[in-house]
Structure formats: C-alpha cells, structure tokens
Amino acid sequence: AFFGDYRLDNNNEFLSYPTTKGIFYITMNNNSLSYEFYGDYADEDARKEIIDRLGLNDDLNYIYSKINTDSYIENAIRNLYGLRVTKNDPFETIVVFVISQQNNIKRIRKITLNLIEKFGKQLNIRNENKKLFPDLEDLRKASLNDFLSLGLGFRSKYLYSIVNSINDEFINEINKLNYNEANNRLMWLEG
C-alpha cells in the first residue's frame, strides 16, 4: 500500500513518501527524475534508496514478459507502461502486511497514515512538520490499546506481538535471505 502523496501537475509527476529514516520528494518530467530527501541519509544512500525502491534498474520488458498472462495484465501493461511495484523496507513491509490482512486499499492507507501520525518521529521540512514512518523502537512503545485505537481490530494483537518479538538483527537478516528462506522465517511470526 502506498502511504505517501502523489499528484500530476502540468505533465509533472510528483511523489513524496516517508521512510523510517527520512522523507523523499520525487519529481518526474519527460522521463527525467529528480529528488530531494530530508532526514538521516547520506547522498549516495539516498540515491540507492530511490533506485532500489522504485526498481529503476529493473528490466521492465523482462518483467512484463513474465507477468503478461492474460488480457487484463496485457491492457495494464499497455496503458500503464512504466508502472512499478515499489520495493519497500522489510520492516515497513511487515507492518503494512499486517495492516492489509482482510482489508481494502482505502482502509490500509488510512490506518497506515494514522500509524505514521501517532508514532512517527517528527521532521521539520520546508517549515512544515512531517512525520516519518515509525521504526521498530517507535512501535515498541505502543500498547495493544494504542494499536486498537488506530482501527487495526484483530490485527492489533499481531502487530503488537511482532514488534515485541523481532529486533533490528532479524530485519537485517530477512533482507539478506532469498525469497524462500525469508518467507520461511517470516512464517514464524504471529499473524
């Protein structure tokens, strides 16, 4: 689920999104991408984050050839060429996956934005207070009732259990495993 801001103005696409380490502002015009970042990123780390998260080095033709299995996908590829699935940080992915269980996109986005607002660290950007995606330590401070107050319902106990049973080492390890190994490790988490 996308929890940043997106708009299209005068053929310029604008995207902003919070991470646990900062906020990115991305502008795309005529296949040219530029970005600004605020927070805890070195210049090269910010560049790598953009390339990795947006899959800018991915071979889209190869990906499209593998997923083009029916007329719906074929139409999506033709009408939305260049659309990418973002590669989010493993911790963000775990959190949003729990939020997404038996949920719709509108509610997933609302709950995720509520989570960011309630638990994210504040960062002053361009004279505006913005919130980062909460990190593991931010969410460990939350109670089960805090998660319930966000509208998580039955998912509250899963998120509470996960943030209190994993650590940064676990997250870093997941990031280094292949898909099957990571999937097996993640299946041990409650929820």
Structural overview:
It is globular and about 45 Å long. Strand 5 and strand 6 (128-131) form a beta hairpin. Strands 1-2-3-4 form a four-stranded antiparallel β-sheet, with no helix packed on it. It has ten helices and six strands, in the order ββββαααααββααααα. It has helices at 43-54, 60-67, 71-79, 90-100, 105-119, 136-140, 144-149, 155-163, 168-176, 179-186; strands at residues 5-9, 12-18, 22-29, 32-39, 122-125, 128-131. The two termini are 18 Å apart. Helix 9 packs antiparallel against helix 10. The model has no long low-confidence stretch (mean pLDDT 89). The protein is of the alpha+beta class and 191 residues long.
Annotation keywords:
single chain; 191 residues; alpha+beta; two-stranded antiparallel ribbon
Number of helices: 10
**Rg, Å, rounded:** 18 Å
N-to-C SSE series? EEEEHHHHHEEHHHHH
The overall pLDDT average reads 89
For the secondary structure, the number of strands is 6
Extract low-pLDDT stretches: none
Can you tell me the overall shape? globular
User: How much of the residues is beta strand, in percent?
Assistant: 15-25%
Major sheet: 4 strands, antiparallel
Instruction: Quickly give the structural class.
Output: alpha+beta
The strand order across the widest sheet is 1-2-3-4
The percentage helix is 40-55%
The end-to-end distance, rounded to whole angstroms, is 18 Å
